[in-house]
């Protein structure tokens, strides 16, 4: 009767993000996931890789057992 | 630094829902709200009114400090 | 990197609750579960059984992959 | 009818933590707050200060409109 969800504290892209504008990306993840919205959050390619930069999530959408994030990259790590 | 959200266990429409199809409705609420998705949930006009029926939330969207629900009415109370 | 949790909208006891006082019960469930606290919530023995009554959750504790609820029964269904 | 909660992605102590053991601390915060448990999380004195270190939250308790965290400091920033 419960609804499984996953609390996430960073964005792990696995390189599957799509750029929609200059600094705006869309990323679809499996399952229902809870992310902080409009709060600086780290972006990584994999969960163990270095940080790519920092983003603000602008939109979260839950539908058909998936979560679609729209996020704005606000800073980029120079080493990337 | 935290993100305020509200855990909701029923849909309170305040009569502001929009029918998009036969049994499918869209409702926009203020703030970021967490609802169970794809689980039967009671629908009421106000929080103290009798139940209108039961719905399944099919989509939840968070953006710009508001939550947009798309829900499917699966049963209707005969007294309404 | 995420934390799995389950959003719950009712208390399903499976008969495993322990009475600690007159109307106060403690129930331990597997996993991290999110329940509304201090809001009337239905109590059932199994997820498909009839409602036993209504409770207010007074305390939620997460530790070692389990959730311990303390709830106060505020109404009892006469048929039970 | 909803339950207000706050999603938190770091521990902000405001110097109010109590040491209970070597690396184990207890911190009480106002309101119901959702934190990732058993996942590395940053600890800061204020939300704008530098990081003090990293912790694992071992226990979260919600009761009477407050949240009590028990966390284990797993790394300390040398500059602190």
TrEMBL record, chains A, B, C, D:
InterPro entries assigned to the protein according to its UniProt record, in alphabetical order: DUF2584 (IPR019699), PUA-like_sf (IPR015947)
Top-level taxon of the source organism: Bacteria
Name of the protein in its database record: DUF2584 domain-containing protein
Organism: Neobacillus novalis
């Amino acid at each position: 009767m419960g609804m499984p969800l996953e609390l996430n504290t960073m964005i792990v892209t696995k390189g599957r993000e799509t750029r929609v504008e200059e600094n705006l990306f869309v990323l679809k993840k499996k399952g229902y996931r809870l992310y902080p919205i409009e709060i600086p959050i780290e972006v990584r390619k994999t969960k163990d890789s270095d940080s790519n930069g920092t983003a603000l999530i602008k939109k979260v959408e839950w539908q058909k057992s998936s979560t679609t994030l729209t996020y704005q990259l606000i800073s980029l790590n120079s080493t990337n």
